[in-house]
Design brief:
Structural class: alpha+beta
CATH superfamily of the largest domain: Outer membrane lipoprotein wza domain like
CATH architecture of the largest domain: Roll
Largest sheet: 5 strands, mixed
Helix content: 10-25%
Distance between the termini: 10 Å
Radius of gyration: 39 Å
Strand order of the largest sheet: 7-6-10-8-9
Number of strands: 29
Number of domains: 4
Shape: elongated
Length: 533
């Protein structure tokens, strides 16, 4: 990859540092945005997304109970013949000609034919066949009120679930509504009380038969506790007001991961901040209060760690080992390709090293931005030039932040390895032998060239088309297979090496260019490439 520097463009300007255009006199500073804290959604918030409201009442449900207003088709043939549609009256009675009243109210749809046949059979003893069909049912209108986004009167079937009507009303108010205190009222009296948590966790929910004028009342949210960390459900959990809430109740709802060992609780007690940290077993005994934030931690260290191996290996790629394992002792268990493995190129990719490289690069980029934005200017023309320079530096910084350090840890020189302690997540790289030398950076044609003993760095650069106009001919780096980065002047190039040609900098005394130069070298060493900026 080739590095297109912004430096030549920057050098074309007369400025020696960057600054922003001064603000107009009298301008007032922009107001500082208000600090916001993310509060997790209540447990169960995903229930009401319109899917329950899409359901259509199924009047052919065999469990449907016949009620006043329903219309039934009855067909009789044999000793007596008639065919008609009859409505169930307010007493649940359907009147059939020459048969009289038939009590069908309260019977299930699946029982309707038997009820009618039994009544007709009491008049006509033999040779009578009966067919019934429920052709329309009586809808009901139910009021939904309380803490819902869209309270109102909604129509549906009498056997529709409460979830249907709640979904029609927009669900439950996330900030004020209760998922555990939903009451069904009839004529001012409590018909049923519904808790949605058993439905979410176990699929259980009460199914009261609703009637015209019933009220679904969503109560106010009870005590709320927020969970974080190593749990399967990160949410705001609700508990009914007036009840003692213990850590055990929260554990049963949240399903902590097996690795959880400790719990921290942040809240307030008696108007003062409250913080506690304790093992899971002790946490289950304490009382929780509204507004508590409970974080589940995995703080018990294990005795083992997982190490990976990659490259010219022929066995397993994952090795669970004890925490005091050293490199050489594990290498003795990793089978490699005897003819292909480059044992002198062994190195480790380590997360902690990559994090330090990333932190160092971020700090250097932060200093560069600070320098570009705090420089002074002597004239309006100089200030305008620096505004443009600041834009270019911003582009440079944005691109440089995309570089991802690989965390390479050099563990030795040649066949001599340092027997260092391994860390969890380490990747042991055993590279394959190579017969080529990679040339990249500021050359005309970055490519791989077959290694030839005795050739110098200049020979390989010539094979890649020669130096580019931006190349620093005296700054060539050699990256060895084991991760070492060495100056080409003092290094013998071998098969498998990578040659990096760094960019040239004008020798003007500009601190800005020195900062950029430092960053580019950091990127080259941390990523083993000269990135295209």
């Amino acid at each position: 990859m080739r590095l297109l520097l912004l430096i030549p463009v920057l050098l074309g300007f007369a400025a020696t540092a960057l600054c922003a255009v001064p603000a107009a006199s009298g301008a007032s500073p922009s107001p500082r945005p208000a600090l916001t804290i993310d509060v997790p959604a209540p447990f169960g918030a995903e229930l009401f997304q319109g899917n329950f409201a899409k359901g259509v009442f199924d009047e052919l449900n065999p469990e449907y109970v016949i009620m006043p207003g329903d219309r039934v088709a009855v067909r009789v043939w044999g000793a007596r013949t008639f065919d008609g549609v009859f409505e169930v009256d307010a007493q649940g009675i359907m009147f059939l000609p020459e048969i009289g009243p038939v009590q069908v109210g309260g019977a299930k749809h699946s029982q309707l034919t038997d009820v009618v046949r039994k009544k007709i059979g009491s008049v006509y003893i033999s040779n009578v066949e009966v067919y019934t069909n429920l052709i329309s049912t009586q809808p009901v209108a139910v009021y939904v009120t309380g803490f819902v986004p869209k309270p109102g009167r909604y129509a549906g079937g009498p056997t529709e679930s409460v979830l249907y009507y709640l979904d029609m009303a927009g669900g439950i108010d996330a900030e004020r509504g209760s998922y555990r205190d939903i009451r069904i009222m009839r004529d001012g009296k409590l018909l049923a009380q519904i808790d949605l948590y058993p439905f979410i966790l176990q699929g259980k929910i009460a199914r009261p038969r609703l009637e015209e004028g019933d009220v679904i009342l969503v109560g106010e949210r009870g005590l709320g506790v927020v969970t974080e960390g190593n749990v399967r459900h990160n949410a705001r959990f609700e508990f009914l007001a007036g009840n003692l809430v213990t850590g055990q109740q929260l554990v049963e709802l949240t399903s902590p991961e097996q690795k959880v060992s400790h719990v921290s609780v942040v809240g307030s007690r008696h108007g003062a901040p409250y913080n506690i940290y304790l093992p899971v077993a002790d946490f289950q005994q304490i009382a929780l209060q509204d507004g508590d934030i409970v974080h589940f931690h995995a703080d018990t260290p294990g005795d083992t760690m997982m190490i990976s191996a990659t490259g010219a290996i022929i066995g397993a790629s994952r090795y669970p080992v004890k925490k005091d394992t050293r490199l050489k002792s594990l290498l003795s268990f990793i089978p490699v390709e005897p003819e292909l493995a480059n044992l002198e190129g062994i190195h480790i990719k380590r997360r902690s090293v990559a994090e330090r490289q990333r932190k160092s690069l971020d700090e250097a980029l932060r200093r560069l931005e600070y320098s570009s934005l705090t420089a002074t200017s002597q004239s309006v023309d100089e200030a305008n030039i620096r505004v443009r320079e600041a834009e270019l530096i911003s582009q440079f910084v944005a691109k440089a932040r995309e570089a991802q350090p690989d965390g390479t840890l050099v563990v030795g020189q040649g066949a001599k390895l340092n027997d260092l302690y391994l860390e969890d997540g380490d990747i042991i790289v055993i590279p394959a032998k190579s017969d080529v030398v990679m040339i990249s950076g500021e050359v005309l044609m970055p490519q791989a060239i077959v290694f030839r003993p005795g050739q110098e760095a200049a020979d390989y650069v010539a094979g890649a088309g020669g130096f580019s106009d931006r190349a620093d001919k005296g700054s060539l780096l050699v990256v060895k297979p084991n991760g070492e980065v060495l100056p080409a002047d003092d290094t013998r190039i071998a098969a498998g090496d990578q040659l990096l040609v760094m960019p040239r900098f004008d020798t003007k005394n500009l601190q800005l260019l020195k900062d950029i130069s430092q960053i580019l070298y950091q990127i080259a060493i941390a990523t083993k490439v000269v990135i295209d900026l």
